[in-house]
Write a structure and sequence with these properties.
The protein is of the alpha+beta class and about 350 residues long. The protein is built from eleven helices and twelve strands. The longest helix has 18 residues. The protein starts with 10 loop residues before the first helix and ends with a helix.
């Protein structure tokens, strides 16, 4: 890991100056169009993060600066501005966007907390006095040479075979199956049954959603039983940047669905994507899956607590079972993601847990 760098001693003065100019910044709904200096640029072209599609949720806000390409996706919760994925902008312009966001938050008497920060942006935040802690891991799979063959995937093949033997088949909404209000109502019914069985509310912010029939960028593969009932489904959303493809987003199954229903869904989705030439399938972020040394200056309490949450924090998030599901596909991209705080306080953790509906 990188060594600790000296904090910029002029940073407070720089933020004070920026606060005088922060009225020129722009905060808007993620569904509105960005003002970009070059017409050919798009929001998607600025994103280099496996969870980039989640940043564009209509429930998020986007912080932009006129004349600067890029944005920061965030929501306000309690005393914090909580940003998802860091700064989505060309490298040369990330600093000014971040400084303007800090000034914006300071003017509103809020502190900035960032989740799912990638390694290459860690130093950007450390230079501004943030403590950095591992908070989880994102997994991804190259589809070019993917195969279900091999001893390591024997159990996976067995689960898929059991699901097929039970009479399940997989359809894609809008291709093999109607994509309308009636079929989406069935998806919501499956999701609600799953949540009731888990005694949980639907999580938010760092997780996707079912969406609507009109949102055709969100692909849905569903396991259908012999009576044409949906018993499990997985949504897939676009993923942009250095490893383009799709993100394995929301997955749900009925409590009594045959074993292997979700594995069968994903296997079929991979088969279709490979035929289409899709380069990568991302399995997304799993909280609390961490390992190796922290960066210098990391919050000691968080460094101690996060590994414990992986093993004992199932009431907050079932990290261990989620990691096991993703690892059975033998992902070849395993990347740590980080939490950036200034400082990381009990209130910051509380606000994050409230925003994600983990409490």
């Amino acid at each position: 890991m990188a060594t600790n760098s000296p904090m910029n001693l002029n940073f407070r003065r720089r933020v004070t100056t920026l606060m005088e100019d922060t009225e020129g910044s722009d905060v808007r709904s993620a569904t509105s169009d960005m003002k970009l200096p070059r017409r050919e640029e798009s929001v998607e072209a600025l994103i280099d993060h496996p969870s980039g599609f989640l940043m564009l949720s209509s429930r998020n806000q986007r912080f932009t600066v006129p004349g600067i390409s890029g944005f920061i996706s965030f929501r306000e919760q309690g005393r914090h501005v909580i940003a998802l994925g860091g700064v989505q902008a060309p490298q040369a312009q990330r600093g000014i966007l971040l400084d303007r966001l800090l000034a914006f938050a300071s003017k509103r008497r809020r502190r900035v907390l960032v989740v799912q920060l990638r390694t290459e942006q860690v130093q950007l935040f450390r230079d501004r006095g943030f403590s950095i802690n591992q908070i989880g891991t994102t997994f991804g799979l190259s589809l070019k040479n993917f195969t279900l063959r091999g001893t390591k995937k024997m159990q996976l093949r067995n689960k898929i075979s059991r699901a097929r033997a039970s009479g399940l088949r997989v359809v894609e909404f809008g291709v093999d199956w109607p994509r309308n209000e009636m079929t989406f109502a069935e998806l919501h019914s499956v999701s609600q049954a799953w949540l009731r069985a888990k005694s949980k509310r639907e999580l938010d912010f760092m997780i996707g959603e079912i969406g609507s029939p009109e949102d055709v960028r969100r692909r849905i593969f569903a396991a259908i039983d012999p009576t044409d009932r949906c018993v499990a489904f997985i949504t897939y959303v676009p993923s942009w940047g250095r490893a383009p493809g799709y993100l394995h987003d929301l997955s749900r199954r009925l409590p009594l669905a045959p074993p292997g229903a979700l594995e069968l869904c994903n296997a079929r989705a991979i088969e279709v994507m490979m035929a289409e030439g899709v380069p990568y399938l991302h399995f997304g972020f799993t909280p609390f899956v961490v390992g190796g040394p922290e960066f210098a200056g990391a919050n000691r309490m968080a460094a101690w607590l996060v590994p414990l949450l992986y093993r004992y924090g199932g009431a907050i998030y079932p990290a261990e079972s989620q990691a096991q599901y993703k690892l059975k596909w033998a992902p070849d991209i395993i990347e740590r993601e980080f939490l950036a705080a200034r400082p990381l306080s009990v209130r910051a953790v509380f606000d994050l847990l409230l925003l994600t509906r983990s409490l």
